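Readers outside the structure-tokenisation community will struggle with the description of the input data as it stands. For illustration, here is how one protein appears when written out as sequence plus structure tokens:
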Amino acid sequence: NREVLEKLLADSGLEFTELFPCHTYVFLAAGHPLAERPLITLEDLAPYPCLSFDQGQSFYLAEEVYSTYHYRQVIKASDRATLLNLMVGLDGYTLCSGILCEELNGDGFLAVPFTPPEGESLSTEMEIGYICKKNTILSEIGRAYINDIKDYLDAWSE
């Protein structure tokens, strides 16, 4: 979605600031049959439903990595609780940054490193950041928020 997003941002006078790059992980319930694997591929995931967070936005603004990939089965949900319940009840999964917050999701979920099948052109790199108006300075609250995110990520990566 990079080209579409860059155009939308430029047309709207916005800019993206990267906080950090990260690899892609498979987010799933701790009891999922693949939970103990050191790496998971799309081939491993084929029998399970891919879960997608739907906010009613454009296809080009999808949150999920590989939103254009043709999954065997995709289930869309519009709230986090439903998505988490589907992960547990249907052995569903989603692809994510690997940054999990137990305060939001509980401790029954985990992130396993993802690797695309050999020969696939899918990247496993993601860019995490924020968007603001061009040529503006973040407010004091905005800077505090970004600093809190950086502190959380520093503690998380240790």
Observations:
- The mean pLDDT is 84.
- Helices lie at 2-11, 42-45, 80-90, 102-105, 140-157.
- The chain is about 30% helix and 25% strand.
